[in-house]
Amino acid sequence: MKLETKCLHEGYEPKNGESRALPIYQSTTFKYNSTEQVAKLFDLTESGFFYSRLANPTVDAVEKKLASLEGGVGAILTSSGQAANMLALLNILGSGDHFISSASIYGGTFNLFAVTLKKLGIEVTFIDNDASDDEIRAAFKPNTKAVFGETISNPTIAIFDIERFAKVAHEKGVPLIVDNTFATPVLCRPIEFGADIVTHSTTKYLDGHALQVGGAIVDSGKFDWANGNYPEMTEPDESYHGVVYTKDFGAAAYITKARVQLMRDMGVCQSAMGAFLINQGMETLPIRMERHCKNADVVAHFLNEQDKVEAVSYPTLEGDAYADMAKKYLPDGCSGVIAFTLKGGREAGIRFIDSLKLISLVVHVADIRTCVLHPASSTHRQMSDEQLSAAGIAPGLIRLSVGLENVDDIIEDIKQALENV
To answer: Maximum distance among all alpha carbons in the chain?
Structure first.
């Protein structure tokens, strides 16, 4: 099936007389007829549903759909995008380990890496999103276990060179983890360019309607976890009667461990109702992304012509630093998010945002409705000026998430707000 068809049909196939829409299995537990059957579930020798923290039929259907869209062997839904990135790393890193990340990432993720994981004994080295191969190699340490980046960075709209980072990571025997939230599998499928693990904040475009917080991890099934760097994948897990993930689950070793070990212990699961709402969004994802990209391209070109605008970051603009990379990784569009800076810095940005009438000031992005945010005073507020600068975020930078309204109405609102700057 083509991607558009997969968005509608993958994951759930109703049998004769069953519900055409994905059912909501609003249940914490599932009944069995014998202790033997339940024992097999806990021994991981049979698959099934027994407690919704680990698996639920509604959640399972959406996981299968997303895995198919990204080209992976399996996926798990989590309670948020933050939870997804946390589990993606904790699944293969522990105290004393190290990983590398692009500095141009979402502020909440930056804080997770730099502060919270550090408290757990996991160190991160942030490098420039456009670092050379040699600079990437130089960031490696003997205990480096992963490399991380965002396909389209939030909020600077920098494009991550997936194929190049994957090549260096694989030279060193570690996986590349890519957060594909802004691009979605409609615009880019990182696994096709060498990524090993893909994460999402499903709260954004996958849901698309600002209804349900969620996240996801997709496993490509292609990384060699038995290369000697990941003993937890190749040695018996005594918490599951000595199961060996690479031996017992093959290509699905990583995603299986993430579910039965970390989801079991941390409980950052998605609900059945939440998965249902995410699925509703995914069903219309292709047509929404087409409109988001089209509207954003028009708005970016409009902003680029305004005297009061100092700079605009959107890869379809002529001369944009990532224009060529966009042709490779994002040939069908660059999502609906634009970053721009007004002349006059922070104060100009505040006046502009406070003057908007149609466009909503919300702590959100990638919604069907156009919304705006000032990252330095909100999502990235915890970062110092030096950290903001390293991430490419100017104090006056504005993140504009272009929605599905008539583009003329969006531009009219921007025009009248600019008059007050």
So the answer is: 73
Backbone angles phi, psi at 237, to 5 degrees: -95, 105
The answer to pTM > 0.85 is yes
| Structure token digits, residue 294 | 């089209």
Lowest mean per-residue pLDDT among 76-90, 342-356, 401-415: 342-356
Side chain identity at 409, as an amino acid letter? D
Three-class secondary structure assignment of the chain: CCHHHHHHHCCCCCCCCCCCCCCCCCCCECCCCCHHHHHHHHCCCCCCCCECCCCCHHHHHHHHHHHHHHCCCEEEEECCHHHHHHHHHHCCCCCCCEEEEECCCCHHHHHHHHHHHHHCCCEEEEECCCCCHHHHHHCCCCCEEEEEEECECCCCCCECCHHHHHHHHHHCCCCEEEECCCCHHHHCCHHHHCCCEEEECCCCCCCCCCCCCCEEEEECCCCCCCCCCCHHHHCCEHHHCCECHHHHHHHHHHHHHHHHHHHHHHCCECCHHHHHHHHHHHHCHHHHHHHHHHHHHHHHHHHHCCCCEEEEECCCCCCCCCHHHHHHHCCCCCCCEEEEEECCHHHHHHHHHHHCCCCEECCCCCCCCCEEECHHHCCCCCCCHHHHHHCCCCCCEEEEECCCCCHHHHHHHHHHHHCCC
Question: What are the CA-CA distances from residue 181 to residues 84, 117, 137, 200 (Å)?
Answer: 11, 21, 26, 5
Q: What is the dihedral of CA 112, 113, 119, 121, to 10 degrees?
A: 150
Q: Tokens 């605009």 belong to which residue? A: 312
Angstrom distances, CA of residue 321 to CA of 307, 316, 363, 388: 21, 10, 27, 19
- Report residue 221: phi and psi, to 5°: 75, 10
Could you tell me how far CA 87 lies from the centroid of its own chain?
Answer: 13
Amino acid (one-letter) located at 171: E
Residue 148 CB coordination number (10 Å)? 26
Residue 380 has pLDDT above 90, yes or no: no
Q: What is the pLDDT of residues 187-219, one digit of tens each?
A: 999 999 999 999 999 999 999 999 999 999 999
Starting at the edge strand found earlier in the chain, the sheet holding 371-373 runs 309-313, 337-342, 397-401, 371-373, 360-361
Q: Please list the residues that pair with 398 across neighbouring strands.
A: 340
- Give the C-alpha separation, 231 to 50, whole Å: 29
